[in-house]
Specification:
Helix content: 25-40%
Bound molecules: FE2/S2 (inorganic) cluster
Oligomer: single chain
Shape: globular
Number of helices: 10
Strand content: 25-35%
Distance between the termini: 39 Å
CATH topology of the domain at 12-72 and 182-246 and 339-394: FAD/NAD(P)-binding domain
CATH architecture of the domain at 12-72 and 182-246 and 339-394: 3-Layer(bba) Sandwich
CATH superfamily of the domain at 12-72 and 182-246 and 339-394: FAD/NAD(P)-binding domain
Length: 505
């Protein structure tokens, strides 16, 4: 138990899971389906396909659950912020309904799977609320409620919520849920292996080639030869000429787990405005605890990341009182042009190469929906929700506007990073601190570790050449253009970059 916010980020889910480990791929191998990515999408798809008798091979660049799935709030809900009204406006009622039903089906699937497989993962039914304390957002919530009515979603507009915080209006969606995501997925991993599926960790997929079959190529030169490939690596590790880096933007948000002073009345909450806030209950080692988070911002941009953690801490202290600090961590999410994930063939002429990405902050249900949809696709079965998620879709509204906005922002940061002046030098660095400095005129990332050793990297991102910035919250180098992230030694933590930053001595 700590009376201070933990110095280093660590996800409670990861820390409390005895994850099954697997070795590296050290030979060429054949499968029916090769899956890249050991998060909720990849593992659920591997579970479903292996149950249907398909031979699956799943690769992960690091250990399993190390991506966004291991850093989620783990709400199982179809209430994804205020979205249904804008989906109806922009995509039409039919597609808005497809989105809702796909997520509802995913919720039901998770519950059924937990029951059928007897998984002990703290699954708890709870109501979900979007609340606002701003007059300006009241109308938005009322419009969202009208959208619920059009789509047959049971919802209720409220003037009060169980939580004792000042609000002007709230919208409730009943009977949603939360769970321990890694206890759930770890159990599925066991079943995949019992069904003959193979999992390889610390095996980075870098390309896919086609000759007779699909060949997934790994960094150490091995191949997975298969009929279908599922790219579930969060940011797709191959682009397949789908230009996904121009059609999504990355953002980061923060979570803190603590024992509150005040008792918690139940419910899962998000606010309707900025800065974003999210709240849910979790039982940690038999104690009542809360996960409180938010502070969403574009990766590599804005104020120092540590200030986002501090803002969450202040909100938690003011709202609940903090008895003990337990954990803090952060997550990266990808948002598409129309806020609907891309799930399906990477391009319309490559039906054996499938991807799932862009879940915004709602990966538990969207990721499960993706696994169900891609499994149907591979088995040749019709999925009623495929159309809304088709990665090749393009809507004049809102896509053109958002596309221009995302890529203008990339161009701005590409230039800004190159021109930025920094007057800092190595001597200015404190322990456990990173800074951009100039060495012989070259922009250089410098981090001094707790033993006083300085690690230097070239700050030019190996994806498309933007300049990375120091992340003071998580001690990483983050790219403001498409969200690649690198360790203090330059290793890739998060794509689209595949190569490490150049290290200097
Ligand atoms: Fe694209 Fe860095 S992630 S340039």
């Amino acid at each position: 138990m700590s009376k201070k916010i933990p110095q280093h980020p660590e996800s409670y889910w990861r820390d409390s899971t005895n994850a099954i480990t697997s070795k590296q791929l050290e030979k060429d191998i054949k499968a029916d389906v090769g899956i890249v990515g050991g998060g909720i999408t990849g593992i659920t798809a591997a579970y479903l396909l292996s149950k249907k008798g398909k031979k699956v091979v799943l690769l992960d660049a690091g250990p399993l659950f190390n991506g966004t799935t291991g850093h989620t709030t783990a709400k199982i809900t179809a209430q994804h912020g205020i979205v249904y009204d804008s989906f109806i406006q922009q995509l039409g009622v039919e597609k808005a309904e497809q989105y809702y039903k796909a997520n509802k089906q995913a919720m039901e699937f998770i519950k059924e799977t937990i029951d059928q497989e007897g998984i002990d993962c703290e699954y708890t039914v709870d109501d979900a609320y979007i609340y606002t304390d701003s007059d300006k957002k009241i109308q938005k919530l009322e419009q969202e409620k009208e959208a619920y009515d059009k789509l047959g979603i049971i919802g209720e507009l409220l003037d009060e919520i169980p939580l004792n915080i000042p609000i002007k209006k709230a919208l409730k969606m009943e009977n949603q849920a939360h769970f321990h995501p890694l206890k759930y997925l770890n159990h599925l991993v066991q079943i995949i292996q019992q069904n003959g599926g193979e999992i390889y960790e610390n095996t980075t997929a870098i390309d896919v080639e086609y000759s007779d079959h699909q060949h997934i190529i790994t960094r150490n030169g091995h191949r997975v030869v298969c009929d279908h490939v599922i790219v579930a690596s969060h940011f797709p590790f191959i682009d397949g000429e789908g230009f996904y880096f121009t059609r999504m933007y990355p953002s980061r948000s923060y979570l803190m787990a603590f024992e509150p002073e005040k008792s918690f009345p139940g419910g899962m909450y998000i606010n309707a405005g900025q800065p974003s806030r999210t709240i849910r209950y979790v039982n940690i080692d038999g104690k009542d605890a809360l996960l409180v988070g938010g502070e969403k911002h574009k990766t590599g941009q804005g104020k120092p990341e540590i200030e986002h953690y501090e803002a969450i801490e202040k909100f938690a202290q003011d709202t609940f009182g903090i008895k003990n600090y337990l954990y803090r961590w952060s997550a990266q999410d990808l948002t598409t042009l129309d806020k609907v994930p891309y799930i399906g063939p990477i391009t319309s002429d490559q039906p054996e190469l499938l991807l799932a990405t862009g879940y915004r902050k709602w990966g538990m249900t969207n990721g499960t929906a993706a696994a169900l949809l891609l499994t149907d696709f591979i088995l040749g079965e019709k999925n009623p929700y495929a159309e809304v998620f088709d990665p090749s879709r393009f809507h004049a509204q809102p896509d053109i506007k958002k596309f221009a906005e995302i890529n203008a922002d990339v161009a701005k940061h590409l230039l800004k990073g190159k021109l930025e002046f920094t007057g800092k030098s190595i001597e200015d660095l404190k322990e456990d601190e990173g800074q951009i400095i100039r060495i012989k005129g070259k922009r250089t990332g410098a981090y001094k570790d707790e033993q006083g050793k300085v690690h230097l990297v070239d700050t030019t991102c190996t994806h498309l050449g933007c300049e990375v910035n120091w992340n003071s919250g998580d001690r990483t180098w983050d790219c403001p253009c498409h969200g690649s992230r690198f360790s203090v030694k330059g290793e890739v933590i998060e794509g689209p970059a595949q190569k490490p930053l150049t290290k200097y001595n």
